[in-house]
Amino acid sequence: MRLSRAFLPTLKEVPAEAQIASHRLMLRAGLIRQTSAGIYAWLPAGLRVLRNIERIVREEQNAVGAQEVLMPTIQSAEPWRQSGRYDAYGPEMLRLRDRQDRELLYGPTNEEVITDIFGQSAKSYRELPQMLYQVQWKFRDELRPRFGVMRGREFLMKDAYSFDATYEAAVASYRRMMLAYLRTFQRLGVRAVPMVADTGPIGGNLSHEFLILAPTGESGVFYDAALEEQDWLAQDVDIEDDRSLETFFNQVTQSYAATDEMHDAQAWEKVPEAQRREGRGIEVGHIFYFGTKYTESMGVSVTGADGAPFHPQMGSYGIGVSRLVGAIIEASHDDAGVIWPDSVAPFRAAILNLKPGDADTDAICEQLHAADPEAFLYDDRSERAGVKFNDADLMGHPWQLIVGPRAAKEGKVEVKRRATNERFELSVAEALAKVQTA
Amino acid sequence: MRLSRAFLPTLKEVPAEAQIASHRLMLRAGLIRQTSAGIYAWLPAGLRVLRNIERIVREEQNAVGAQEVLMPTIQSAEPWRQSGRYDAYGPEMLRLRDRQDRELLYGPTNEEVITDIFGQSAKSYRELPQMLYQVQWKFRDELRPRFGVMRGREFLMKDAYSFDATYEAAVASYRRMMLAYLRTFQRLGVRAVPMVADTGPIGGNLSHEFLILAPTGESGVFYDAALEEQDWLAQDVDIEDDRSLETFFNQVTQSYAATDEMHDAQAWEKVPEAQRREGRGIEVGHIFYFGTKYTESMGVSVTGADGAPFHPQMGSYGIGVSRLVGAIIEASHDDAGVIWPDSVAPFRAAILNLKPGDADTDAICEQLHAADPEAFLYDDRSERAGVKFNDADLMGHPWQLIVGPRAAKEGKVEVKRRATNERFELSVAEALAKVQTA
C-alpha cells in the first residue's frame, strides 16, 4: 500500500484527553478516532490489528473444537428476565425501546441468548458436548469511559459458551479453553498470566482471569515466574484425552498466581524467592464455570441416557479483542511509538523512500513494494526524511526498509528492526529475505 | 467437520411464521434462529455463508482501491443534527439515551460519521481521492419485519463512501464501484442487474440499484438480456484510466434496465423484442452520487491547489450482505432445499455414510473427510439413509459424496451434484478430484 493514497492519518500533537500511552499512541498512529464518549471508529491501520487478533483468536478457538456463531447486538429483555439478570444488571446495561415499545437492550454479554438458542435445538445428551463462540460487539454504558479502547463503551469481545452433560465433562471443556487461551495470548506476542479469580457462590477453582503484564495495569499481580517461561505452543496436549488435559491443567495451576484481590500471603511465602514476580496487569480474558445457573433458571434441559431430563452444565469464556489492541501497546511501546509484535502488526514493514523522484531510490522502493504490496507500506510521500522516520517509529511496523540515495546507487537498503533498533545494510534480495522470513 | 459433533440443527417442520422460501429454508437448514422480531442469530452454517459473501465483497472492494474501516454501531445524534437528517429520518431510526441522558442512535447508515471522520483528518486536495468502506451491522426499526433476513431489523451491510476533488473524479469513483459490484455479484453465483434509480434533487444518471432476479422479488424489472449475458470478470478495465472506465460504464448503461418505478415504456419499445426480459428482482445493492450534500452541511472542506478551500464530492455504495444470503436462496433453491453456488456454500461437500459401523463405508468416509475436514461435512450420525439424503439436499451442499456398503466394498463412491442431480460412480481419488477441482 502506498502511504500517499492510504487513509493513515498520524497526529503530531499529543491528544489532551488521552491519559495513558496506548490511548495516546492509538490516536497519534491513526488507529482509531473517537466518535462519541467511549466509542471509537477503527481506521485502516487499527482495523488491520483488530482483524489479526480476531484471526488468531478464531484459529485457537477452532483448534479446541469450538464452533463459531454470531448473535445479534440487540437483544430482547425477555431471556434476561427469565435468568433474573434484567433487574440485577444495573446502569451499565444500555436499555432501549423500539417503535412498538418493546423492551430491548444492547447485549453486554450473551449467556441468556446462547442458552436460549441451544435450548431450542438440543434435545438429547447425545448432542453434548457443544462449545459455541462468537466475536461480536458489545456495549457497557460505563459511567466514566476512559483509557481509549481499554475501557470503552462499545467493545469487541470473543465470548464462548460450553454445554456439557456432567461436571467432569464441563471440567474438560474448561481445561481445553485454558489451553486455547494460553496459546492465543502467546501467539499475540504478549504474556498473559492466568490468575485464580473469585467464583462467588459457585465455589471451586474453575475461574481464571488472564492478565497482560504492563505497568499501567489496573490490578496488582503476584505470580510464579514459571508461568511466563512456559512455551504453551510447544506443549503436546491431546484435547480428546481427559488425562492429558488434567496433566496440562495441573501444570498451569500448581504455580502461584493471583491478583491483589485474591492474594494469599501464606501461599506466596511458599514460592521460592527467586521465582516471585510482582507487578501490574491488564485483564484481557476470563474463563468461568457456572454449572446449571442459566439452564436451570431458563428451563433448558435435554434427555439423558436413562430417559430422564437434566440441565446441561455451562461455562463461559471471554477475550477482550478490542481491549487487547490497547493492552498489547501498553506492554509493547517506547517513547517513539508502538512496537507491534509481528503477528498483529498492521503492516510487516514500512518502505521509506528518503528521496522520492531519485531514480535509484524510486526503483528500489518499487521493487520492494511489489514483493508484497499488501504487507508492505510504501512511504512515497514528498516529506522530509525525519517525518518518515518519526511516522514509521510511531506506527510501530516490525521492520523498516530505509532507501536513501547513496546506498541505493549501490543497490543497498538499510533494514531496521523496530523492537531492537538493530540495523543491517543489505541488498534488495537479502533485505526481502530478512523481512519476509524472520 | 463431523455432523455428529456439529451444531447444525435442521428442522423437519416448516416454520409457520415464514412466508417465503428463503426464510423457511434458512430456518429449516439451521442457518439462523430468530431471537426477537426481525432479529436473528447466525448458527455455524449460516455464518459460514455470511463470511463467504463478506470475503468476496471485501476482495472486490480492495481491488478498486477502497480501504476498510469500521465505524461503531452506536452513534451520537450530533452529526445527524448537523446534516439535518436526525429529525427527517423517521421512526425507522432506533433512538436511545445513555445513562447520562445523551442522545444516541443505532446507525442505519453512515454518511454523517464517515464525513466527520474524513473531515477531522483530511486537510488538502492532495489527500484525495479516498474510498473508505466497512462491513458492519446496522439497524432499521421496520414496523413489520418479515421475510427473515430479507427485511430484518438488525442487518449486515457493506457501505462505502468516496471523497473526490472534482465531479469528474467522483464519476470515476462511481464507475469503479459499478465494476466492483458487477464482479462481486457474479462471483457470488447470482446475476444482479444494475437499474437506473431515482436521483431525487441531485439529478443526473449516477444512481443505480442492483437487483437479483427472483420470482419473489419486491420490484418488477424490465431489462435488456445483454446485461445478464456479460462476463464482467473477463472484462479488461484499467481502473486507473478514466477512458477505460468510461468505455466500460457506457457498455453497462447503454442497455435498457429499469424497475417498474422508473420504467420508460418508450425506451422499452426500442429494445429488440428477443432481448426484452421482464420479471421480478430483489434489491441487494445501491450506488449513489450525491455531490457535496454532506460535506457542505457538515462544514467539511479541504484546501485546493489554488489555496482556496472546497467541499469534496461524495458518493455512497451499499451491499446488503445479510440480505444476500436470503436473496441467493430465493434465486437458487428447489423443493428439497437450498442449492448453494460453490463460492458461498457453507461446506463444499457432504459425505454421507449410509451405514456407520460398516468397516468399508467407515474407512472410505474417514479417508474422504481427512482430505479436507474444513470444507467437507461428514454425516456420521446413526440415522437412516433417507434422513441423510434429505438433510444434505436441504442444506444445499454443492456436492454429495454418498458412501453405501455395496459400492464401498469395491472402493467406489457415488458423487452427486446438487444443482443438476448428475451422479457419478467414482473411485475415492476420482471423487476427490472431481469435487475439489470442479
From TrEMBL, chains A, B:
* CDD domains assigned to the protein according to its UniProt record, in alphabetical order: ProRS_anticodon_short, ProRS_core_prok
Main site of residence? cytoplasm
> Which reaction is recorded as catalysed by this protein?
tRNA(Pro) + L-proline + ATP = L-prolyl-tRNA(Pro) + AMP + diphosphate
Q: EC no.?
A: 6.1.1.15
Instruction: Name a GO molecular-function annotation.
Output: proline-tRNA ligase activity
Some GO term, biological process aspect, for this entry: which one? prolyl-tRNA aminoacylation
Its subcellular locations are: Cytoplasm
Q: Which domain of life is it from?
A: Bacteria
* One Pfam family it belongs to: tRNA-synt_2b
Naming one, the record's GO cellular component terms include:
cytosol
Q: Which PROSITE patterns match?
A: AA_TRNA_LIGASE_II
Q: Which Gene3D superfamilies match?
A: Anticodon-binding domain, Bira Bifunctional Protein, Domain 2
Tell me which family the UniProt entry assigns to this protein: Belongs to the class-II aminoacyl-tRNA synthetase family. ProS type 2 subfamily.
> What is the name listed in the Swiss-Prot or TrEMBL entry for this protein?
Proline--tRNA ligase
Question: Which taxonomic lineage does the organism of this UniProt entry have?
Answer: Bacteria, Pseudomonadati, Pseudomonadota, Alphaproteobacteria, Acetobacterales
